[in-house]
Amino acid sequence: QVQLVESGGGLVQAGGSLRLSCAASGRTFAGWIMGWFRQAPGKERESVATINWSANSTYGADSVKGRFTISRDNAKNTVYLQMNSLKPEDTAVYYCAARIRFGSTWFWGQGTQVTVSS
Q1: What one-character DSSP code corresponds to residue 64?
Q2: What pLDDT, on the 0 to 100 scale, is given for residue 53?
Q3: In DSSP terms, which residues pair with 23 in a beta bridge?
Q4: How far apart are CA 26 and CA 37, in angstroms?
Q5: Average pLDDT of the segment spanning 9-18
Q6: Mode of pairing for the β-strands spanning 46-51 and 58-60
Q7: What are the residues facing 73 on neighbouring strands?
Q8: Which of these, 16, 42, 47, 66, has the minimum number of CB atoms within 10 Å of its CB?
């Protein structure tokens, strides 16, 4: 069974940085796509960034380009989200997710709260 456990969330002032981590377990994740999503109060969940197995293809939402960087360590089954220059509008619950390369079903972590104060 796929398990995704996020860590690294917290409270930070605007302009600060946080690094989220997501440890994956329960199976071999070779070839899987990993991603970060977020959901702010009253808003729908949105994609923040995704990364393929070989880490040579990444996607980032326009709202975070130039500020957030997704990376992965396949030996550790871990994906990271480095968040710099944080803004109050980045406040949300951040979810780690994983899916097989050509699949449509995402597996989800429990989420970690990120709060950016102005």
Answers
A1: T
A2: 86
A3: 5, 78
A4: 21
A5: 98
A6: antiparallel
A7: 78
A8: 42
